[in-house]
Amino acid sequence: MTALLAGGVAIAGSPIFVRLSEVGPMATAFWRVALALIPLVAWSWLGKDASADRRPERFSDYALLILPGVFLALDLGAWHLSLTMTSVANATLLANLAPVFVTLASWALFRSPVSRNFMAGLVVAIVGVIVLKGGPGALGDGDLLGDGIAVVAAMFYAGYILAIGKLRSRFSTNRIANWSTASAALCILPMALLAEPSLLPPTGFGWAMLFGLAFVCHAGGQVAITYALAYLAPAFSSLTLLIQPVLAAVLAWVLLSEPVGIMQAIGGAIVLIGILIARRG
């Protein structure tokens, strides 16, 4: 649980780095995963965790290790595209519907039991995110196609969480992280080359933002989440990650001087209450 919360805290900083990035959204997404390979590969050389791990033996093993990266690349690509088509509030809100799709897929595909407490906590947490983002009225500021793409992004992130959860019973954290991150970088690169006029930031500050996004948010955050999924159910893990928009609002207040209003404070409190209710389930 501690690792999952630490991962949520690390990823919550990603909007700050993306906001301050000097390259476009697709290029930022590419560098987010490509630069993260530096600490991940170094970690592999220094040693690996002792939890369940074995070398991939069959083609199907390699395909399974690549699958989370494909989902992650599609998630980042869809979410960044939605940010250019609809309001930031809509894109962020709808992309945070991932726990709904994780819960539905866990029940439909794997017959994972879903308690009433968990469903109640899920509903409360989703309501909290809606309040955090300005209430139902905020949805009227968006574009229907952009909103739809943000929902698709949530579906892809749900696929990422479920794929990681299944792999953690067979492979170690660093093996999954290396393969999924490398495959995500390879999938995002052609999208970035087609969508962006340049992949390279012009200043040292721009590179610093990309390294921060890669090292802190991806290498730190995603690895912590991958580790936690060996011990926690994917549905609860995805729900707990709803703490990200709460923390992102706090970080924007501290680092970017963006004030936290009463709606955001109430929404954040509702999200935390929903997570606590779901934890009992």
Descriptive terms for the model:
EmrE-like; mainly alpha; 281 residues
Task: Describe the overall structure.
This protein has one domain (2-111, 141-233). By secondary structure, the chain is an all-alpha fold. It is globular, with a radius of gyration of 18 Å. It has 14 helices and no strands. Keywords: Membrane, Transmembrane, Transmembrane helix. This is EamA family transporter. It comes from Rhizobium fredii (Sinorhizobium fredii).
Distance between the termini: 15 Å
Largest sheet properties:
none
Spatial extent as radius of gyration: 18 Å
Low-pLDDT residue spans: none
Provide the β-strand percentage band.
under 5%
The percentage helix is over 70%
Structural class by SSE content? mainly alpha
| Coarse shape | globular
Mean residue pLDDT:
79
What string gives the helices and strands in order?
Answer: HHHHHHHHHHHHHH
Specify the number of helices: 14
Q: Tally the beta strands.
A: 0
Query: How many separate domains make up the residues?
Result: 1
How is the secondary structure organized here?
Blueprint: H1 2-12, H2 14-20, H3 25-34, H4 37-46, H5 59-85, H6 88-95, H7 98-110, H8 116-132, H9 144-167, H10 173-195, H11 204-228, H12 234-240, H13 243-255, H14 262-280
